[in-house]
Amino acid sequence: MLAKSSPEKLTIEMRAADVAQLYDMLDPYPFPERDLDPEVDAFIVGWVREKRDRGPIGIVVHLPAGECDRPAARQLAGAVQRHYTRRADAMTVEITELFRNGRRFLLIGVVVLLFCVILSQNVGAWLGAGGVSNFVAESALILGWVANWRPIEIFLYDWWPLKRRRTLFRRLASADVRLRAEPKRNDTGI
Question: Which of 6, 20, 112, 173 has the fewest CB atoms found within 10 Å of its own CB?
C-alpha cells in the first residue's frame, strides 16, 4: 500500500490480490454492507492524518484484472462511503454524548462551587477566626473550582479531536474510489 499527494488531490493507492482482503471478513453482512478491514481502514486514516491535506481525497485500488469484475469490487466505492459515513455518524454521537456529560458535570460542579463558596464565607462564623478556619475556607474554594475542572476541560478541549476525526471521516466518505486492473503476471513474476 502506498499514498501519494498531488496538487489537486491526496491519492491513496493500495494493492490487493483479492478484493475480499479489503473487507472485514468477521463482519457477517454481505459485501456492500460490510465494513472495511481494520488494517485497511487504519492505513487510509493514517495517511490522510499524516498528510494534513485539506483537499479532496482519491483512493485507487490496484487489483488483478479478474478481480475488478467481481461484484464485491464494483461495490467497493459504496462500501467505502458507507463505512466512513458510519464512522462520522459515530463521532457525532460521541460528541453529543460528551456535551451531554459536560452539561451534567457543569450542573454538579456549579452546585458544589456554590456550596463551597457559602461554606468558605461562613466558616469563620462557625469556627472562629484563626488558622483552621482559614484553611477550611481556602480548601472549600479550591474544592469548588476543582469540581468544575472536568466540565471546563470538556467544553474547552475534549471535543476538538472528535470534531477533527468526524471531519476526516466525512472527507473519506466523499473520496473518489477507483479500481485499476493490474496485468496478469506469469509464474516467474514478470
Answer: 6
Q: What is the pTM of this model?
A: 0.78
Return the beta strands (E) in the chain as ranges: 2-5, 10-15, 57-64, 176-182
Q: At a CB cut-off of 8 Å and minimum separation 6, what does 74 contact?
A: 179
Rounded to whole angstroms, the Cα distance separating 125 from 133 reads: 9
pLDDT in tens, 55-100: 889 999 998 888 888 888 888 888 899 999 999 999 999 999 999 9
Alpha-carbon gap, residue 156 to 80, rounded angstroms: 32
Strand order of the β-sheet with 176-182 is 2-5, 10-15, 57-64, 176-182
